[in-house]
Fold this sequence. Notes:
Blueprint: H1 2-9, E1 10-16, E2 19-25, H2 38-44, H3 59-94, E3 98-100, E4 114-116, H4 119-122, H5 126-156, H6 158-163, H7 170-190, H8 197-209, H9 222-257, H10 272-283, H11 299-331, H12 335-353, E5 364-365, E6 375-382, H13 385-401
Main location: membrane
Subcellular location: Membrane
Keywords: ANK repeat, Membrane, Metal-binding, Phosphoprotein, Repeat, Transmembrane, Transmembrane helix
Amino acid sequence: MFQHLMQRRKHIQWTYGPLTSTLYDLTEIDSWGEEQSLLELIVTTKKREARQILDLTPVKELVSLKWRRYGRPYFYLLGAIYLLYIICFTMCCVYRPLKPRTSNRTSPRDNGLLQQKLLQEAYVTPKDSVRLMGELVTILGALIILLLEIPDIFRVGVTRFFGHTSLGGPFHILIVTYACMVLVIVVMRLTNTNGEVIPMSFALVLGWCNVMYFARGFQMIGPFTIMIQKMIFGDLMRFCWLMAVVILGFASAFYIVFQTEDPHELGHFYNYPMALFSTFELFLTVIDGPANYDVDLPFMFCITYAAFAIIATLLMLNLLIAMMGDTHWRVAHERDELWRAQVVDTTVMLERKLPRCLWPRSGICGREYGLGDHWYLRVEDRQDLNRQRVQRYAQAFQNLDN
Length: 402
C-alpha cells in the first residue's frame, strides 16, 4: 500500500537510458515541520512489519541523507560531550571532600578512617574551587537531561517511552535516574546529611552504563548493543526475580544455622544483611563455601550448602545461559532492522532538539518545478538493462500480434 501511494505521488523529471530522475513528495513523511510524521510513527509502533517501510523508496534515501549529512556528526558530538561530562562527574566523586574521622569506633569491625566534610569545610582550598566548578557542571548537566527527557515522556507516554527498544527504552530510565541521583547528592551535600556515597555510587554506575546508548551511532557495534539491551533488560530482569527468591531462602537458612555460633569464627553470617551478601557471592561462585573447618560446623550446614550448590550452580546459572541463548536466536533475525529504527529515532530526536539553523530541511522545494509549496526528494534510479531489454522484446511481440 505504501509503495502504491508513493507511485501515485511521484513525478518523473527525466529518463536517459537506464537512468531515471524522480521527485518524491515528502509531505507527511519527513519529520521536519510535521507534528506526526511517518518516520515518527515507524519508530514508535510495536509492529515489526512497519519497520520494513524503512527499506522502501523514498524513506530509505531520506533517512540516509539526514543521518549522513546532519544526524551522525551531531550524534558523535553529543556522545563526546557526554563522555567528557561523565568523566568530570567521576573526578568530582573521586576527589569528594573527606576529612579524618573524629568519632570513636563503635565495634571491632568498624574500620572507617575518613568521614564526609561539612558544607562550610568542603570549599576552602584552591583544589576545592576546581572541584566546585566540576560539580556545577555536573548539576547543570543533570538539569539539562531532565529538561530534555521530561517533555518527551509526556509527549510519547511513559509506557511507550521507557519500554520501546527503538526509542532507547531502558537507557532513558538510566539517564533519568542518574540525573535524579545527582540532585539527591546536591540536597544531601547542602543539608550536611551523611550517606551521600549511596546515591553517588548509583549515579556512577548508571552514568557509565548509559555510554552504551551512543553505540547506536556505529554500524559495527550498534546492532549488538540491541542484543545486549534485550538480554540485560529482558532475560536478566526475569532471572533476577528467580535469583532473589533462591538467595532469600538460602540466606535465611544459613543465618539460622549459624545464629548460635561464634560470629568471630564464622564472620560471613554474623548478621542477616551479611548473610544475604555472602549468599549472593556464593550464587555467583565468587567465593567458596565460607565455613571455618577448624571448628565444629552444624550438621545442617552441609545439607543446606549441598542443596544450594545444586540449585544455584547447576540449575539457575544454566537456566540463565539457556534464556540468553534463546534471546540471541530470536533477536539475531531483527537486530539490523531494530538498529535502523534506532538510527531513525536518533535522527528525529536530534532534529526536534536542535535549532532550525543547525538542521536545514532536506530535499528541494516544489516551487522550482511548478509543483507548489510541497517539498520533494530527488532519487536517481538505475534500471537493469536486461530487464529493459526483455520489456522491449515483449512490447515488440505484442505489437506484432496486434
